[in-house]
Design a protein that fits this description.
Elements: E1 2-7, E2 14-19, E3 29-39, H1 41-48, E4 58-59, E5 64-68, E6 73-76, E7 86-90, E8 94-96, H2 103-123, E9 131-134, H3 140-151, E10 155-159, H4 163-171, E11 176-178, E12 189-194, H5 201-207, E13 208-216, H6 229-234, E14 239-241, H7 245-248, H8 252-267, E15 275-280, H9 284-292, E16 299-303
Parallel strand pairs: 9-10, 9-12, 10-11, 12-13, 13-14, 15-16
Antiparallel strand pairs: 1-2, 1-4, 3-5, 3-7, 3-16, 5-6, 6-8
């Protein structure tokens, strides 16, 4: 089968499109014929950072979905070696795809959608009328989070880097869509959902109302600098969380419950999942470059 493997050869890491043996499923695993693969910042980190994921050489990727030989459709967000035509996935990490949800949509939604759902319902449960700031509102999480925040009655201000992306944020329901250079005037925010990190963190803290919540769920621009906790006091007894989806899906039961709530919104037509770009599996390097350069909107998929 074909797969994408990352390797280090005495210089910058490379992605190789290679022939490898089909995986052999072990106990508690299912062998899945992959139909779509999700592309994430985490994949870039895996190939660039020693100790982040599998050691090189290794097949990259954690998110994909497809069909077993007996017709069962499965999707997962925390698998391994997912940039491949076939994957042996642990059943405890996979979720059945319900009728009414296409496989590619399930793959596009599973990671970012579950993230958006727990952010809006659990990290900070948005209340009707809350002023909500969503960074990178035209990205994979941002578009879904904006929609869910509106379903919960929030007033959403989304940030995006271009006019085109700001229009996408408005299309997802954002009440306002602004550039990152306009953050200085934003105030009285109940919660900031920040997947950008270092470059937006300070402005986000400054925008919060007393008892406001700063939720840093990603770090596309690098992790924020350490915070002097006295700043939280002087800012109005602020809260800061650095959550991870793994905590909210730490058991198979929690995973299936969260995914089930997400897929229900999709099946009911309440959540639009935007697939931005599709690439052939052999084009994984280009997909990574486009994502890192913020040339994309919505979810990126690889197709074997």
């Amino acid at each position: 089968m074909k797969a994408v493997r990352f390797e280090r050869k005495g210089g910058p890491e490379v992605l190789e499109y290679v022939d490898v043996a089909d995986p052999t499923p072990g106990e508690g695993q299912a062998l899945v014929n992959v139909e779509a693969i999700g592309v994430n910042y985490r994949d870039i980190h895996e190939r660039e950072r020693d100790g982040y994921g599998a050691a090189a050489p290794a097949i990259i990727g954690t998110e994909a979905g497809g069909t077993t030989d007996d017709g069962e459709r499965l999707v997962w967000a925390h698998g391994t070696a997912s940039y491949a035509e076939k994957v042996a996935v642990d059943r405890g990490k996979a979720v059945p795809i319900p009728d009414g949800v296409p496989t590619d949509v399930a793959v596009a939604a599973i990671l970012q959608g579950m993230t958006a759902y727990y952010l809006a319902h659990e990290s900070y449960p948005i209340q009707k009328g809350d002023r909500v700031l969503v960074h990178a509102a035209a990205g994979g999480v941002g578009l879904l989070l904006t929609q869910i925040a509106k379903l919960r009655g929030g007033y959403v201000i989304g940030t995006a880097s271009t006019d085109e992306k700001r229009e996408l944020a408005r299309g997802a329901g954002a009440d306002e869509a602004i550039g990152y250079d306009e953050l200085e005037g934003v105030r009285d925010i109940a919660v900031v959902y920040d997947g950008v990190g270092k470059t937006t963190f300070d402005d986000g803290l400054n925008a919060l109302r007393p008892l406001g919540h700063m939720i840093i769920y990603g770090a596309a621009s690098a992790e924020p600098d350490p915070v002097d906790v006295r700043r939280l006091m002087s800012g109005g007894s602020l809260y800061v969380q650095r959550p991870t989806l793994a905590t909210y899906t730490r058991t198979p039961e929690l995973l299936r419950d969260l995914a089930g709530k997400l897929f229900a919104l999709i099946a009911e037509g309440k959540l639009d999942v935007r697939i931005g770009q599709r690439y052939q599996l052999a084009e994984a390097r280009q997909a990574h470059e486009d994502l890192a350069a913020r040339r994309t909107t919505g979810k990126l998929l690889l197709v074997p």
